[in-house]
Design a protein that fits this description.
There is one protein chain. This protein has a domain of 52 residues. It contains three helices and two strands. By secondary structure, it is mainly alpha-helical. It has a two-stranded antiparallel ribbon. The protein is globular, with a radius of gyration of 14 Å. A hairpin with a 4-residue loop joins strand 1 and strand 2.
């Protein structure tokens, strides 16, 4: 997972976060989405996240992971698009 620097994190749209209001659990790419799922599970076990918050983060991360898989498939199948 590439390091997400403060300037790049600030530039991310709220939609790229698992908790957009608090700008927590950034998911700009596949590796960050997978990491967000793991961190959310840790916080759920510690009692710092509700089940609803955890489920929301996991659903969002899964969508990101599936979107990236589809993008990879389309690129391999049809080549890069402009």
């Amino acid at each position: 997972m590439a390091k997400l620097k403060a300037k790049a994190r600030k530039a991310l749209p709220a939609s790229d976060f698992g908790e957009p209001g608090d700008r927590k659990y950034p998911m700009p790419d596949r590796s960050h989405a997978a990491n967000a799922k793991a961190r959310a599970k840790q916080q759920l076990k510690k009692g710092k996240l509700t089940r609803g918050q955890y489920d929301h983060i996991v659903r969002k991360a899964n969508r990101k992971l599936q979107d990236d898989d589809l993008d990879d498939y389309m690129s391999r199948t049809y080549g890069e698009r402009d």
